[in-house]
Automatic annotation (TrEMBL):
<dbReference type="GO" id="GO:0020037">
    <property type="term" value="F:heme binding"/>
</dbReference>
<feature type="binding site" description="axial binding residue">
    <location>
        <position position="381"/>
    </location>
    <ligand>
        <name>heme</name>
    </ligand>
</feature>
<dbReference type="GO" id="GO:0004497">
    <property type="term" value="F:monooxygenase activity"/>
</dbReference>
<protein>
    <recommendedName>
        <fullName>Cytochrome P450</fullName>
    </recommendedName>
</protein>
<keyword id="KW-0408">Iron</keyword>
<dbReference type="InterPro" id="IPR017972">
    <property type="entry name" value="Cyt_P450_CS"/>
</dbReference>
<dbReference type="InterPro" id="IPR002401">
    <property type="entry name" value="Cyt_P450_E_grp-I"/>
</dbReference>
<keyword id="KW-0479">Metal-binding</keyword>
<dbReference type="InterPro" id="IPR050196">
    <property type="entry name" value="Cytochrome_P450_Monoox"/>
</dbReference>
<dbReference type="GO" id="GO:0016705">
    <property type="term" value="F:oxidoreductase activity, acting on paired donors, with incorporation or reduction of molecular oxygen"/>
</dbReference>
<comment type="similarity">
    <text>Belongs to the cytochrome P450 family.</text>
</comment>
<dbReference type="InterPro" id="IPR001128">
    <property type="entry name" value="Cyt_P450"/>
</dbReference>
<keyword id="KW-0503">Monooxygenase</keyword>
<keyword id="KW-0560">Oxidoreductase</keyword>
<keyword id="KW-0349">Heme</keyword>
<dbReference type="Pfam" id="PF00067">
    <property type="entry name" value="p450"/>
</dbReference>
<dbReference type="GO" id="GO:0005506">
    <property type="term" value="F:iron ion binding"/>
</dbReference>
Length: 435
């Protein structure tokens, strides 16, 4: 078992798969003095989330490890702070609320599609294009400003450094309270420098905000909790950092994987293009996008094969029972989402790109926690509707104009998110050309 635990640092997806293939759904073990439970069973996830809601599990053990980056933002806060923040922010991310930002998404998606269509370039770095597009959307949504300075163009590099460094940092804390962190001394130093750069950027943007504006940060400033209190300057910064990082890296990675997968699967690409073209010249409103059923199934299939969180971690605050077995106080419970997503018991073609997994009633035949692209339980992602609308707008807008083909093989790399090992280069042709 020790070899698999060490492999978690260098190849987490492969290690999780191997652990469950050899030892089953429910695996209790130790690493140094740390108790660990690995589970890949959706029924266990449901038990864990239900007990978390009753206060029997929490995320507290990683609080200090995440605090330099996220402070008391939703990704890290606990207790009353988390509850108040969640209640304050949730109304800003309902389907109705995010419709206000649909115009920004569409405008930036149109710009990207026109660049790809009109530049006369048949080979395109789709990774770089998507990074710039998502960053432009987020800067406008969050801060009410357009992307203009050179410092903003350096942000994605800082974010790449942060997400690469966060993974070993948090994993070593989970496995053994940081005993292994000395192995990543230089990477930790680079991450700290990138965090300082990133937080300073967010701080400077907040200082420029109009408190009466309609951008997301302004709305957060205007928000009041149940006691009429507003968000402190420190919490405002922490939430802005959390939203900017999470909203950028995870969305970019998912879209890169999406275009990579359809670029290698002509039949799926053709069906998606046909569905999008069936909208004719109808504007891409949130309502018309709901008609793109197969396209959304392909997006979900991308999230199944390349989940941005390959595992979720909780710690027991009391002795609990999972799957009829006792799990002692102080155990780190690791829900192996990647292993669940590739398990042939739940998926007809577990290792293939097969959007039909999310069509024809297949969804209702599976346990509701078999697929958790946005987390689960009380700590599910508050920005889910925003991310889904943003990705669908970009996909539909781009594929109205161009077709994509990919010749290269890309593997994932170790990171806090499940990202491609390198930028993806695609071949493009106009959408009017036959595939």
């Amino acid at each position: 078992m020790l070899i698999y635990l060490v492999r978690l640092i260098t190849n987490p997806a492969g290690a999780l798969t191997a652990i469950h293939k050899k030892y089953g759904d429910f695996v209790q073990t130790r690493f140094f003095s740390k108790r660990l439970l690995f589970t890949s069973n959706p029924e266990h996830y449901e038990e864990i989330f239900n007990q978390e809601a009753r206060g029997l599990l929490n995320r507290d053990s990683l609080y200090e490890a995440k605090k330099p980056m996220f402070g008391d933002g939703l990704f890290n806060s606990k207790g009353a702070t988390w509850t108040n923040q969640r209640r304050l922010m949730q109304p800003m991310f309902t389907k109705q609320a995010i419709a206000e930002w649909h115009g920004i998404m569409l405008k930036e998606a149109d710009k990207a599609a026109m660049r790809l269509k009109n530049d006369g370039i048949t080979k395109v770095n789709i990774s770089e294009e998507l990074k710039l597009t998502i960053q432009s959307i987020l800067i406008q949504v969050m801060f009410g400003q357009t992307k203009s300075s050179h410092s903003e163009e350096l942000l994605m590099s800082a974010i790449d450094t942060i997400v690469k460094g966060l993974f070993p940092h948090l994993l070593t804390e989970t496995l053994g309270k940081g005993i292994l962190k000395r192995l990543f001394f230089l990477q930790n130093r680079r991450m700290e420098k990138a965090i300082n750069q990133f937080v300073a950027y967010v701080d400077s943007k907040i200082d420029e905000i109009d408190p009466e504006g309609h951008d997301l940060i302004s709305l957060m400033m205007q928000g009041r909790d149940r006691n009429g209190a507003h968000m402190s300057r420190e919490l405002l910064r922490d939430e802005a950092v959390t939203l900017f990082l999470a909203g950028q890296d995870t969305t970019v990675n998912t879209l890169i994987w999406f275009f990579y997968l359809i670029g290698k699967n002509e039949a799926v690409h053709k069906r998606i293009t046909s569905e999008i073209q069936s909208l004719d010249e109808d504007p891409l409103t949130p309502e018309t996008i709901e008609r793109l059923i197969y396209t959304k199934a392909a997006l979900y299939e991308t999230l199944r094969l390349y989940p941005q969180a390959i595992a979720l971690s909780r710690d027991t605050a009391a002795t609990i029972t999972v799957g009829g077995k006792t799990v002692p106080l102080g155990t780190s419970v690791i829900m192996s989402l990647y292993a669940t997503n590739r398990d042939g018991r739940w998926w007809e073609r577990p290792n293939e790109f097969y959007p039909e997994h999310f069509l024809n009633g297949a969804v209702t035949q599976r346990h509701k926690y078999t697929f958790l692209p946005f987390g689960g339980g009380v700590h599910n992602c508050v920005g889910r509707h925003f991310a889904e609308l943003e990705m669908m707008v970009i996909i539909a807008t781009v594929l109205r104009e161009i077709k994509i083909h990919v010749n290269e093989e890309i593997k994932p790399t170790v990171s806090i998110t499940y990202k491609p090992e390198r930028d993806v280069i695609v071949s493009i042709t106009p959408a009017t050309q036959a595939m």
